[in-house]
Please model this.
Amino acid sequence: MRICDKIAIIKAKICFGFSPDMTRYLTNSYIMQYPIELLQEDERKETGNIISVKALIEMGPNIPYFDKISKEGRQLDQRIKTPFEKALNALDFISWEYANSKEIALSDAQIA
Model:
């Protein structure tokens, strides 16, 4: 279920909008407290705004695994990298770039 419908930063405040499905779930389910901790960003390792490419690809069921494609020996860019980047670019509420764990942007050679 998609939890977030939109997110914005307005006057230094983060505005978070639940998706219609999540809103219906929260308003029609049993009365209970919603743990606000579920919406917190994890800053323990100073990587709260970083997610690995591996983790993103594992969550993308339509993007084939590198191991499978490399065994076939063809179209790595066309079948993995291009759809992955296109999906990230479609998310208008984020900006992204390839970076290492210290948030240093990767060069074109490193990305390739």
Summary: The chain has a mean pLDDT of 76.
